[in-house]
Structure formats: C-alpha cells, structure tokens
Fold each of these.
Amino acid sequence: MAASARKQNKKTKHTDSSTDLKAFDFNNLEEKKGSGSDDDTRDADISKAMQTKRKRLEVLTKNSLKGSTQKLEQMWKTQQNQRQKLTQDYSQQVLSVLQQWESDVQKSEEQEEKLNNLFRQQQKLFQQARVVQNQKMKTIKDLYEQFVKNMEEMEKSHESFLQGTQMELRKEMALLQKKIMMDTQQQEMATVRKSLQSMLF
C-alpha cells in the first residue's frame, strides 16, 4: 500500500509539473512580447508554486504513509488478537479434551480393577465351591460304597439266616415226622393188641 501511494504521489508530481510547464509555455507564447523582468517574476512564481506543491505532496505522502501504517498496525494487532484468541480457544478445547480423556482413562482403569477384583473373587468362590463339591462327591461315594458293603453283608446274613432257619425247619420237620410216625405206630400197636385180646378173650 505504501509503494502504491508512492507511485501515485510520483505520478501526481509528474502531472503537476507537466501542467505547470504547459501553463508556463502557454504564458510564454502569449507574452513573448513582454519584458525580461516579467520573465523573472514568472520564474519565481513558478518555483514558489512548485515548492508549495512539493510540500503539499510531501504532507499528503506523509499523511498517507501514516494512515497506511496505522491501518497496517491496527490490522496486525487485530490479526494478532484473533490468532491469540483462536490459539487460546484451541488450547482450552484441547485441554478440555485431554482432561476428559484422562478422566475416561482413569474411570476405565478403575472399572478394569473392579472387574479384576470381581473375577478374582468369583475364581476364589469357584475354587471353594469346587473343593466343597469334591468333598460332597467323595462323601457320597463313601456312603454309596458303605451302602453296597452293608447290602452285601445283609444279603450274606440273610442267606445264612435262611439257611439256618431252613436247617432248623428240616430238623423240626424230621423230628415231628418221627414223632408222628411213632405215635401212629403206638396207636396201631394198641389197636392190634386190643383186637388180639378181643380175639383171645
């Protein structure tokens, strides 16, 4: 912007100087018949006008440069403030995301620790239940073996008891049969005797 202002100032200077030169030439053409003192006066007026215009151009150039510099500084400050604000907002967002991420990580670690503790407790309970189950199975097995053994012994005792009872019954039957035979024989003998006595007497 400063370079363009300088170029415009140079163009303005060149235009003004050429305009002044044309005016001067025109006056020279109209007043060629004038005296030499009038030429000197005109030269002095032209130089004063040129100096005045030069000063005016310098003032305008300085003012333009000053305004451009102020605008640039203001624009730079505005952009810097925008960059700082954007950086601050981004930093806050990133910090918030990082804090949330750390919180989530901590929560996940706590959950993982809780799950590990629960898993260890469940594993311990499962081991205890397995030990208890093995003990119960062993107790049931022992009871079953004892039951089978008792059944076998009871069957053996029943068989021996039946055998003894059968032997006793056989003995009693034999004795009873022998007694019955003896009684029958005695009755027959008595009947024979009576018949003989009746026949004899």
Note: Residues 36-200 form the longest helix (165 residues).
Amino acid sequence: MNQGEQVKVLGLWGSPFSKRVEMVLKLKGIPYEYIEEDVYGNKSPMLLKYNPIHKKVPVLVHNGRSIAESLVIVEYIEDTWKTSQTILPQDPYERAMARFWAKYVDEKVMVAIWKACWGPRSEREKETKEAYEGLKYLEKELGDKHFFGGETIGFVDIAADFIGYWLGIVQEASGVTIMTAEEFPNLQRWSKDFIDNNFVKEVLPPKHELAALFKAQFGSVTSD
C-alpha cells in the first residue's frame, strides 16, 4: 500500500456483509479506518454522500472514491492491492466458478435462510427446505477441500461468512434448525477452520452480542 493512501470502511458491527470487506482487508494486510454507521436511525452525511443510491453499508472509500456492495468491494480490493494473499483464482474458468458460487450463496442460500427464520410463518417450512437444499449443494461443492478456495481462504469463503459464523447463532436464537453436523459434516468442519483463522477472528462480532440481538428480533417477530 502506498503512503498517503486513505482507506475507510463504513459498516455495521453485526453485518456479515460489512465483515466481508474487513476480512479481506485484514487478510491482505491493508490498514483502514472503520466507521460504524447507524443504518436504522440517523444515517450519517458521509454514508448519504458515498452511497446515495442504496444508502446502505458496507461502503469502501479509497482516496475519496467510493464503492458499494460487499462482493463488488471484495473484487475491487483484490484487483487494487496485489499481495501474496489472493482471493480470486487467476484461471478464468476457476475465477468464473468462484463468482458463480458466491452469487449462489447471496441470491439463493442466504435469501432462503433469511425467509426461513424471519419470513411469514406460512412460508417458513418451504423456505427451510429450500435453505437445506441450497446448503447441500455447497456441502457437495466443498467436498474434502480445506476451504472453497482450496488451501487458503478465497472469494466463496468470504461470501459464505454468514454460514460460517452467523448461522449457528441464528439457529440457536430462532429455534429453526437448518444445518447440523450430522447432515453437513464438510460445512461444519469448514466453519470451524474459517472462524479459527486469525484474520477472520479479529473482525467477527462477539457471539453473545449477536445472540442478544437476534433473540430480541425473534421475540418481536413471534409477538407480531
């Protein structure tokens, strides 16, 4: 990183999307300033300035220029800072497949998990089944590899951070069980290895604080 470069992350402490960005910056050894945003209350002038379209986090600000959307930011970091820790494969086919699986995690698996836990009661059983089936494809794709990226953490691992850390806490808080060690041994092994990584561990939000947040959310959902 060149002297004088300014890197800021506008994020939310408990957001797996924000943490994706911080994980990659930590893995690549890029210093940055973290700015916590109140996205549910008073959104800061900085957030409205740098992400006027979506007004959401995370946002990466690099030398005054902003990039939004977590996986777009991860790719930008990969392309901007060439370090020994690569996130995306060099081979075009493998690179395309990494993008495919990352998009699959975001648009298929995480959406189904969210609806299974927070959606209308009438749809939860259907969405739980969809989330289970989505995770089964990931279980097969992972196989006996250490990480989705091979021997080191890569793009798909970062995209799947919610599954690696947040899902277990959500299951405990909601009482909805989707992923078990018996049904998903590969993903359970991967989850442990992923969150045991020192750079990943450094940015993960405290489990007890997340658990309290989710329990409060589920309490309000069940009382509706």
Note: The radius of gyration is 18 Å.
Amino acid sequence: MVDRLANSEANTRRISIVENCFGAAGQPLTIPGRVLIGEGVLTKLCRKKPKARQFFLFNDILVYGNIVIQKKKYNKQHIIPLENVTIDSIQDEGDLRNGWLIKTPTKSFAVYAATATEKSEWMNHINKCVSDLLSKSGKTPSNEHAAVWVPDSEATVCMRCQKAKFTPVNRRHHCRKCGFVVCGPCSEKRFLLPSQSSKPVRICDFCYDLLSTGEMTACQSTRSDSYSQSPKSSLNDVSDDDDDEDSSD
C-alpha cells in the first residue's frame, strides 16, 4: 500500500501542503519514496506543562511542530528519523491519559492522544513503519535512547540532594543522562554524550561519577522506570533551563 502511494499525485500534494504550513523556516519534506501516513494533534509533555503539537507520520520520519493556525501554519519543526525510534506505552495518571513514550538517541518525550483508539492507531502505525524500515535496511532496533525529562512540576526539591528547594532564584536544571530535575550545585559538571550533542552537556554529579568510571549501564537503569512511577502534581512555571536546546519545551 505504501509503495503504491509513494509516487501518487495525491501523496505529493499532501506532503507539499505540510511543507507550506511550516513555511520557509521548515525543512523540505518531499523526497522520492516518502509517504505521508497520517497526521493529528497530540499533547506533548514538555518540561513546564503539556502542550498541543501537530504531528505528521511519514513512512521514514516523524515530524512535529507548534500550532500557530490549525491546518494552516506551524513553526519550530522537528524531524525524527523513524529508524532510531522506539515507543513504550505508559499508564494513565490523572488527567494525562492515552500516552506513550517516543524514545530516540537524541531526545525522548511523552505524548498523549485524545482517546485510547487514537493512541492504539498511532502506536500501531509507528511500529509498522519502524519495522518496515529496519527490515529493508537490515539494521537492528536502537537500544540507546535519551532520558525522558521529568517535568518541572514533579520536583519541588532537587531529586539528587533532596535538600535544595526550587525558587525563582534557585532554578531547576535537567540532567541530560538520567532526566532528573536537579539544582545547580548538583549539576555543575559537563560530559560529552555524542548522541545528544557535539559539546559536553549538563549532567548531575551522580551520573558524572558513573560515566567517569564506565558504569554507564547502572546510570541508565536509575532512570528507566522512574517516569511512569513518579507522581503527577500541579503544573507551574517556576523556572527555565539555561542550556535547554528548545526553550519552549
């Protein structure tokens, strides 16, 4: 079905419309063999609060952006190669329902659909696209993925020292290795994580010690299940992260 659509006029026209919605700031999306599988609005759990984002699923990439005018204009385009994607369902928590994790080596985050049916359709289509890509390329699924950041609202104190309270002066920061919300003194060190950045990035002291001694597996395991287990609390806008690659998220 996808192969038949690849060179169809209807598919080319649909992709062109998406390109036009992102405008000159967006990357070109039309390439031979690319097919637009589906699109829709999902709620992305950003570092300050959940935000609506427009998502487009192609047979080889996942694209999303901020909604400026629904179906007419989007900005801050993000393109994720599906070969590097793995997804995991997450349990419903309060108002956050029908969610799953999108995990890649460079960035991982949670999204939520409006209904359980919509969630199932998104996950099935993503898994099918990833499976087809890996089958054609002969590659194996990626085992490395960036940590899912704990939202600001889930930490009133540093998740490492458990002492420093966050205020407008004592700001929140995120460890790029474990995703925890930490204070400045607990995250003064930098470490090179090539999958995330060409420059050393902020990490907490705990992860730094493990990475420095080569115990990377132990460091990763500290974060693997904490997202779905951590309690949800009221959302706030107390602080931002000074070295966040995307200040809106």
Note: The longest strand covers residues 36-45.
